[in-house]
Amino acid sequence: MDLLLTGGTVVTMNREREVLVEADVLVQDGRVARVGRGLKSRGTRRVVDVRGKVVLPGLIHGHLHACQTLFRGRADGLELLDWLRERIWPFEAAHDAASMRASADLTFAELIRSGATAALDMGSVHHYDAVFESARDSGFRLVGGKAMMDAGSAVPDGLRESTADSLAQSLSLLERWHGSHEGRLRYAFAPRFVLSCTPELLREVARLAQHHGVRIHTHASENAKETEAVRQYTGGQDNVAFFHKVGLSGAHVTLAHCVWLSQEEQDILRETRTVVCHCPGSNLKLGSGIAKVPELLEAGVAVALGADGAPCNNTLDIFHEMRLASVLHNPRVGPRAMTPLRVLEMATVHGARALGLEDEVGSIEVGKRADLTVVDVSGLHAGPAPEDVLAPLVFSARGSDVTHVFIDGKAVLKDGVLTTLDAPAVLASANAHVERILRRRKKRARGS
């Protein structure tokens, strides 16, 4: 059905980065048909008055773990490798299809409620159909794939897989889901990180991704100890340099974190147009460090934003990540490097590049998919109204300020209420499943 948003401040994020005051957005057949002032509602079945509000391109997470949301608050106080081996991997290994669905439902409910319309997700090793099923039913736009883990130390039996099985299961998921539901769901190969993958697996992922025209999504240089372990594992090579050697670089590759980069690695990212995802909340909570995002952006590297997983961040609110990204780098590079516009670019146009969807989403332009987020920045915590509308969006706004979210022109949040997910039921299911998993783990621990 047609949709007309009327009277809002439209932050287009188009090439000119136009901001249109008291403007309208007309949607037809799930795509933006017109943007401007004084558009007529004649024949339009749905008209939404957004006067006094801001209309944004749907916000995009460039790195996420929907499989981990069920375990929020249960892996605090640890650095990355201990966090993985002692808490996260055992929790992920305890998932079944039902608990995975509960975790994904909770994820997409939170993301939509806080203004996100799309994400690049890495699952656990098994049950990734449940994540796609949740995205399908919630109306969310998802690029994702199962984690691939055919190597590594302290990997639970429930996660370890052979190279052949990892590739076969990934290809099976790709065949079932890639491009389905009018292209809203797409597959990405997701080798977990260097330490959990054999070089043989990574080389074959590089070949298959090129053959099938899909993305690769992995982690790189997140933690200093991890980076040193990678050097030992690869005979002295750093993360990005090793990935580049085995074919995991290029505009179709998104690398999460990239905190501990050598100059050689920064050059590789720039020369190959590999996309980076900055996850400031996660990097701070795990004590991993602070990525040199201003330098990467100045070098022309596309840097997206992401929350990572709930257990290493606690919140999946991308407004939280925008706020952190805008102020985190100031002590080192000064307060003018990460402007509101630059940060909003990370959450929209660069996010679209991280998902390989820059021709479809990330800006409000004629012909693009109507993924739209409406934000009310008139609250006490954002007032009084500033001259630059981008400032309160990045510095002050919260996910709770989002009033409407549309994906392909369909309302998935209306007046702050989810329309495709039942929030109380989602939360109740999540509580029940995590309690079931904890009881099972305690029973097994007593038995051992």
Structure overview:
This protein has 448 residues and is α/β, with parallel strands linked by helices. The chain has helices at residues 80-93, 97-113, 128-138, 163-177, 199-212, 224-234, 239-246, 263-272, 280-285, 293-298, 318-327, 330-333, 340-347, 349-354, 390-395, 423-447, and strands at residues 3-11, 19-28, 31-36, 46-49, 54-57, 59-64, 116-122, 141-145, 147-148, 185-191, 215-220, 253-257, 275-278, 303-305, 372-375, 402-407, 410-414, 417-418. It folds into two domains: 3-57 and 363-415, Urease, subunit C, domain 1; 59-354, Metal-dependent hydrolases (TIM Barrel, Alpha-Beta Barrel). The strands form two sheets. Strands 1, 2, 3, 4, 5, 15, 16, 17 and 18 form a nine-stranded mixed β-sheet that branches. Helix 2 crosses helix 16. The model has no long low-confidence stretch (mean pLDDT 96).
| CATH topology term of the largest domain | TIM Barrel
CATH superfamily of the largest domain: Metal-dependent hydrolases
Number of domains: 2
**Kindly, what is the distance between the CA atoms of the first and last residues, rounded to a whole number of angstroms?**
58 Å
Summing up helix and strand content along with how strands pair, one would put the structural category as: alpha/beta
- Please state roughly what percent of the residues sit in beta strands, choosing from under 5%, 5-15%, 15-25%, 25-35%, 35-45% or over 45%: 15-25%
CATH architecture identity of the largest domain: Alpha-Beta Barrel
Number of strands: 18
